[in-house]
Structures are given as C-alpha cells and as structure tokens.
Prior knowledge:
Elements: H1 2-27, E1 39-46, H2 58-78, H3 83-103, E2 106-112, E3 119-120, H4 122-138
Antiparallel strand pairs: 1-2, 2-3
Helix pairs in contact: 1-3, 2-3, 3-4
Amino acid sequence: MFEYYLFGIFILMAVVLIDQMSKMLALKGVFNDVKIPIVTFGIVRNKGAMFGFLKSNKKLLLLIHSFAIVLMIFLLLTEGTYFYGLIVMTGGGMSNLIDRVIRGSVVDWFSFKFLGKIYFNLADLFVFIGLILLLIVDL
C-alpha cells in the first residue's frame, strides 16, 4: 500500500512541476512563435476562477480553492477507487493554487481556436483529465 501512495505522490508532484514549468516558459515567450493550427498562444492572468468568477473576492476564492484541495486529499486517502483521477485533479488544483498565492493570479497561456478567446493552462487540462478518469471508473 505504501508504494501505491508513493506512486500517487510522484504523479501529483509531476503534474505540479510540468504545469509550473510550462507557465514559466509561456511567461518567457517560448511559445510565441509556435504555430499549431487549432491552438493560439498568449498570456492571460486570471484573477478569478473559471471565466473570471469571484475575481473581486480573492480571499473567498483562495478559501474555496484550498477547501477543494483538502477535500480531494481526504478523498484520496479514503476512496481508493478514484485514486488516479483524484491525484491528477489534485495536482492541477494545487498548481493553480500556487499561482494564486505566488503570482496573485493564474497564468493561462493557450486557447483552442474553436473555443474563441477562452484561455487555459496545463493544470486546467489535468483537472479535466482527472474528471474523465473519475467518470470512466464510475461506468
């Protein structure tokens, strides 16, 4: 069982590290000249949650975000069925929380052209992938 949790911690740390590194590269402009037909690159600093929700109440947003991560960690320790989905979601959530605390906003740096001007980061994708894993396990 110890190895199981150790592997989970490794995945969580990898998710946070990959996302934070991608944001640093984006802030340095590394992706500015990259051309991918369905993706647009740019920097958007999101001070709120999804679509700017709660951007005017930073303390409440931090409280909700922190509570969600604590809840996911509790579920990780008590609900083995959803372990991998929760670990990936927790890593994405932790990385965005790190942004909120250190940078004052979440750095979003790419958009899918078919979605318009909605920008994302890898942490957002990790949360989405974790949700898909939860749904697959529950089928």
